[in-house]
Amino acid sequence: MRFFLRYWQISFCFLLFIITSKVQATHIRAGEITARRLSLTSPTYEIKLTAYFDIVNGTTAAERQDFAEFTIGNVNSTGASVVLRAPRILPIVNIGNNSTRNVYIIQYTFPGTGQYRISFEEDNRNNNVLNIGPKPTQNLNFYVSTTLNINSNLGLNQTPVLLNAPIDLAAVGQRYIHNPGAFDADGDSLSYKMFIPQRSGVNGSGINLEYDDPNLIGAPGNTETGATPATFSLNSVTGDIIWDAPMQTGYYNIAFVVEEWRDGFLIGRIVRDMQIIVEDARNDRPVINPLDDICVEAGTRISQPVTATDKNGDRLTLTSTGGVYDPTLVKPANATFTVPQQGTLGQVAGTFTWQTGCDHVRLEPYSVLFKVEDAAASGNAALFRKLVDMTTLNIRVFGPKPTNLTAVATTDPAGIAYRLNWNTYQCQIPGARIAIYRSEGCKEIPEDVCISGIPAGSGYERIGQVAINQTTYLDNQTGLKAGVSYSYRIVVEFPRPGANINEPGYLVGGGESIASEMACLEVPTIMPVITHVTVDQTSQTAGEITVRWTRPMSRAGVPAQYKLMRATGQTGTNFTTIATISTNLDPAVADTLFVDKLLNTTDNAYRYQLEYSTTQAGSLAIVDVTEPASSVRLEQGAAIPTSIRLNWSALVPWNNNGTVHRIYREDKDNPGTFNRIDDITTQGGQPFTYIDDGIDKFPADGTINVTISKETSYCYKVETLGSYNDRQIKPDNLLNFSQIICLTASDTTRPCPPVLVIDPLDCAELNKTPEIFCNQNSFTNNLSWTYPQECDQNLNAYRVYYARYEGDTPALVGTVTAPPIPLSTLFAHNGLTSFAGCYYVTAVNSFGVESAPSNIVCKDNCPMYVLPNVFTPNGDNKNDIFKPFDCPAFVQSVECKIFNRWGTQVYETKDVNINWDGKTNAGKELAAGQYYYEVSVTFESATRNPKPTIIKGWVQIVR
């Protein structure tokens, strides 16, 4: 008996030791999973877990963790997951803060393309984590996951690596900052999101823990500067985690996701779970000076000083991490960071140095993290806690500018052609290519070391590409025009690092070079162009417009002719000839100007076109017709209290955008004299706009301020400035005046739009009584609206607009006017053939100014088409026909098919009422029994081409 008891005690103790060892086995603090593809021919990846262990009570737990198990499964599949055991890669590294770093690596070939989740879970987080639960936290397992997009088009893609350890110290009451130091060797874009720490679920999935942001633990705290409350945030672009500021000592765990993007598509995500250790500190954190972003051309040597200080005079250590230091992530030459005197008191300085090269060109910036850490200067350091500060330097490396681009005209069977040549490009990166851009006119672009490629909106169009080793290109594309000046620029486009440039459909996307200098072909301007259409006089009957054009390139003394044509309106096409001018093209003769008189420039804009003819074989023949050009049209703008909005436009062949336009207001003390009140740089499309608040912002011709009043009329004109961007067309600056417009603030005050509703149809209720619309030929829609209380209530009318179909232009169908006062906000639209249609309402003030449209509200009919389940085609004239109950309302068309129980079609009709008599289309009587129908019904709708409604069911023939 004693022997048995002794054996039982030994066995129990051994079992207890195993259980206890398992429960206390890991004390895991933080970690993440990363991966990289190893082969272009098979989806084989190296998968790595980097895990961090608590060694407060010794290194046993970390040392016993000899392996890690990965669970791998397709995200979009419910199939079984694969479990892999990865060995630990020695040695274990003590990273400080009572923590070790263990690394586990295995290779795995995925079964095919798709999205895969790789997860890791292990028992026992470390205990006493304050912001996760349920408690105790040592009973919670640790879980992280990474999602990969397995796709051969991504080349030898690898996930970003996180270079900064996820175990950090923070101090009570002091701002804490952490950055994971994420680096993507493929140059993919990275973004960051907060994530709730998880435990493991079923089949490799994760389940959220109970979680609070660290700043919510304990009483509401303050920031380092004393503001309330304490804050906790993650910068989605930089990855900076800032806690300002901790209030309670202890352990805190947070998690975040690093997302990997390529060309706008999400291709992977890493979850990192990390721990922050908050302690009391008798010292203040050090401060590292922020660094401005750097842009360089490849080949530039960077030498960046970095400085940190500590107001307590503590001993400082300055370090740096980043992919630029690692030859496995970035091709040499690699960067270096030197600190001549580490551990100096109160201040420390270092120098970041990097000789950039062609292999470093990429789209995304390189991020380099700098970290300063303090230490006790002297004396008892028992209560001293190391504190840190960080900053990030972002470096963009662009390809160097291509050099010596030239362009010359050449002969080509296709017609007009230009040959481009340039020097051999200095960065011969496999897979890179040279893109060729062209623009009409000789156009400059901004020059800035931080602007690569061709800026959007610069007027250049991408017309072709050649391999990186090419030095020439022939532009013989269709559409090249004689007599037009063209400019060219080239840009080098680089492949993404690690990309498979031999893959079908491979696209570059790893960055661009600075654009080359412009090569401009100044083709002689052979044909005339219109340069001015300026309003000289504003009048309904005596208006005047001066039209000017350039003299064509031709030999003086040769008889020629100009024919000037005019159309009414800025887009008018009703051109009529207003002047025929014979010319010998003598530069001394003023034959490129015409003053068009007796116009109504008050109410109309005008459009001009010039026809040019020369003498050929003894008679005049048309050789060119210019592009049309309109006068500048000035209009009143929308409502702004105590101000006047002006809008203007000009449809011309030259460019008026991005230039300075001049605003003039009439001087009330000197009628007819206009004072220049402002110059504005136009941006965006037309119409251009300006708001006059009465302040004269152009003092050069005298300052005349006014107070805008509704009782006073003000007169304006504007002067546009444009250019052809062609150095051969003179003058360079084309100045043209609008007509004069006079208005008051009331003229420009538009009422607010009302808010419209329409009485709804309760289709569910109406379908209970479908006979309600039988034999009804006229319907009514009842409209109601509200007018905003905060808007001007001085209204004279509401106007109601209606369109039968959505998308059509609504027409006026009614006006609600006074009396009574206040105006009614109800309208009944009678006499409709159905309820379908769309409405909006406008408000009209006492000046006759109409508001913008209200919200558009569309109403549809109820789809009322109900079929019986039985009919008796026996000739007794009672229920002999299968047809809809009562009358089918609002039906445009019907297609009905009847099937027997074996699925064979026995009857078909397009009769709206079906009217099936129980026979086939050939007139053969069908047997009694159950039949099935499929009816496609198209109802009258507010949509012009509505989708049919499919009604399926069964019907019993009883004979």
UniProtKB/TrEMBL annotation:
<protein>
    <submittedName>
        <fullName>Gliding motility-associated C-terminal domain-containing protein</fullName>
    </submittedName>
</protein>
<dbReference type="Pfam" id="PF13585">
    <property type="entry name" value="CHU_C"/>
</dbReference>
<dbReference type="InterPro" id="IPR036116">
    <property type="entry name" value="FN3_sf"/>
</dbReference>
<dbReference type="InterPro" id="IPR013783">
    <property type="entry name" value="Ig-like_fold"/>
</dbReference>
<dbReference type="InterPro" id="IPR026341">
    <property type="entry name" value="T9SS_type_B"/>
</dbReference>
